[in-house]
Amino acid sequence: MAAASFSATSDDGAAVTETAPIRVFFIPFFASGHMIPMVDLACLFAGRPGVEPTLVLTPANADLIRSTLDRSAAAGRSVRLLLFPFPSVGLPDGVENIATAPASDTWRVHKAVELAQSVHDELIRLHRPDAVVTDIPYWWTTSIAADLGIPRITFHAVGCFPQLVMNNLFRIRSELAINNGSSSPTPIVTVPGLPGRSISIPRAELPSFLKAPNHMTAAWDRMKQAQLKCHGVVVNTFSGLEGEYCEEYRRADARRAWFVGPVALAANAGIERGGGETGEATGKECLRWLDEREEGSVVFVCFGSWCFFTDEQQRELAAGLEASGRPFLWAVRAAEENEWMEEGWEERVKERGLVARGWVPQVAILGHRAVGAFLTHCGWNSVLEAVTAGVPMLTWPLVFEQFINERLVVEVVGAGRRVWEGPRAEAEAEKTVVPREAIASAVTRFMEAGGGREEAAKKATELAAAARAAVEEGGSSQQDLENLIDELVAAGRRGTVESQLA
């Protein structure tokens, strides 16, 4: 249903035409790393007069961001909620997100995504918004939107550089012999078609669907085909970070693209983002702990909501942090058990180390004066939030496109250093346990003078300034956001005229 219009009469008798708000649905994936930036984007839309954003969520996911929406509403940026039941996939009540599911059950969350197709179809057709902004896994929303004659915008929770790398390798995967079952596939792959410097990646570090056909291969193709047919793509990035890659992405992979990040910075996000009441309490504890530490002394350790370590690797990481002698704040997933922890370890490190279980306010932590380095898995949100805060990174990628993101951080922009120079792999069965000695050495060296942190911090500080400029009035991301909203408003108005003429 396109935006409705109605007529009234002014005091002088002249006709006045009023237009109802443009209604935009936002439908994120069941993972905090996707949901939180889309919530930020919806809040940005809410700041524009004449736009009525609605987040389409399941109940437990809505609970995680409800306080964020309350604060946004108090600031004059109201976002509506439309709830639907989480599909029944055998998870306990209230577990509706990758972040809260045990490692052995994450496949059930992906199954729930598949089952959400019919629900999305029903909700969009029933409520008939003027536009939909949906996560890339929800490829089916392109055809639903086309049936209704409304725009579907694909939301990307990763940047242009990793997308270009994966898209370019996907197109020529057979030529590179990375999916043909060869007993001796190319060990190092040089990515074709990228602007600027040459980028090479070991085959073992590439996402699985690029190395051999699997369930993700067909899914990736469906998602990309749907993206090509949709109205356009919105990406959480900014030109100061990915300038030449943004240009190439718009030219090669997305005829219409808007680069609107960092959305957390643009939305003035902070401690309240995505943790619910329990998360906020944990966040306040973390910030109080940081208040007692010296400036730039703390290593913040966080591997996101979607990454898992074996118990052995957890123990090695814990021992490495202890041996480094540096203060650290380590965020671990709430769904993790404590069997990995050596007896007495937490007691030994309590004077200089804090283990936070569950969600933590990463934006606020990275912005704290006490944090001097970020040991990260290189998830895209983490990369953006680190450069926004001007914090240098120690990189430890684990899965998916994270090894590709690391290339951007370390090789292209120089805002970080690798933790481990030994063999690494994306597939769990091929991973090497990084020993405690290597972890301790990497942390100690990076935090010492001449260990690379100063140079990385300088680059990160420059990127932080570029990020602020991008979201300020007249900045590249602010302009792209305005252009996107203008286009959706215009499409809604055209729809009104067309429906009236019909």
UniProtKB/TrEMBL annotation:
<keyword id="KW-0808">Transferase</keyword>
<protein>
    <recommendedName>
        <fullName>Glycosyltransferase</fullName>
        <ecNumber>2.4.1.-</ecNumber>
    </recommendedName>
</protein>
<keyword id="KW-0328">Glycosyltransferase</keyword>
<comment type="similarity">
    <text>Belongs to the UDP-glycosyltransferase family.</text>
</comment>
<dbReference type="Pfam" id="PF00201">
    <property type="entry name" value="UDPGT"/>
</dbReference>
<dbReference type="InterPro" id="IPR002213">
    <property type="entry name" value="UDP_glucos_trans"/>
</dbReference>
<dbReference type="GO" id="GO:0035251">
    <property type="term" value="F:UDP-glucosyltransferase activity"/>
</dbReference>
<dbReference type="InterPro" id="IPR035595">
    <property type="entry name" value="UDP_glycos_trans_CS"/>
</dbReference>
